């Protein structure tokens, strides 16, 4: 099937899924993401994300994860990107807990107090890349 036909077919399928499951903002199932990644291989990340009204960075991250898996790297969940939250301004407790669990069942929990600075991306990356 030609790339544009496949993009149109995926757009229709995703639109139908969104109507049936509550619209945008609802977590897209893995099977649908797999189809979107295949289309993006043909049409490119930018064009696919724009046509399907998906987050470009999330699609690019998924494509990177698929390539890594094809190269034999262990599978990792794809994160949603960086979000900065000022807990004090929101009136939340200045205590933050980060919990990670690997596919092997190993866990990491880090509790941060007010004003604690940590490179969360480096922490998560180190956890996922560890070798047992």
Can you offer a commentary on this structure?
This protein is mostly helical. It folds into 2 domains: 3-70; 87-129, no CATH class. 53% of the residues lie in helices and 9% in strands. It is built from 6 helices and 2 strands; from the N terminus they run αααααββα. It has helices at residues 3-21, 30-43, 45-52, 56-70, 87-90, 120-129, and strands at 96-101, 107-112. Helix 1 (3-21) runs antiparallel to helix 2 (30-43) and helix 2 crosses helix 4 (56-70). It is elongated.
Give a short summary of the structure.
With 132 residues, the chain is mainly alpha-helical. The chain has six helices and two strands; from the N terminus they run H-H-H-H-H-E-E-H. The protein has two domains: 68 residues; 43 residues, no CATH class.
Write the layout of secondary structure elements.
Elements: H1 3-21, H2 30-43, H3 45-52, H4 56-70, H5 87-90, E1 96-101, E2 107-112, H6 120-129
Antiparallel strand pairs: 1-2
Helix pairs in contact: 1-2, 2-3, 2-4
Structural class: mainly alpha
Order of helices and strands: HHHHHEEH
In whole angstroms, the N-to-C terminal distance is 43 Å
The neighbouring-strand order within the major sheet is 1-2
Mean pLDDT: 77
Number of distinct helices: 6
The count of strands amounts to 2
The total domain count is 2
Classify the helix fraction into a percent range.
40-55%
Give the low-confidence spans.
Answer: none
Biggest sheet features? 2 strands, antiparallel
Radius of gyration: 18 Å
Shape: elongated
């Amino acid at each position: 099937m030609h790339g544009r036909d496949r993009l149109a077919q995926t757009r229709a399928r995703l639109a139908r899924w969104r109507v049936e499951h509550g619209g945008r903002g609802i977590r897209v199932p893995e099977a649908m993401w797999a189809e979107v990644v295949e289309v993006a291989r043909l049409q490119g990340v930018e064009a696919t994300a724009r046509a399907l009204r998906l987050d470009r960075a999330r699609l690019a991250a998924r494509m990177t994860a698929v390539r890594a898996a094809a190269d034999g790297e262990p599978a990792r969940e794809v994160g949603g990107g960086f979000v900065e939250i000022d807990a004090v301004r929101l009136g939340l407790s200045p205590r933050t807990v980060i919990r990670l669990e690997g596919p092997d069942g190993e866990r990491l929990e880090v509790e941060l107090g007010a004003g604690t600075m940590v490179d969360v991306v480096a922490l998560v990356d180190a956890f996922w890349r560890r070798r047992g």
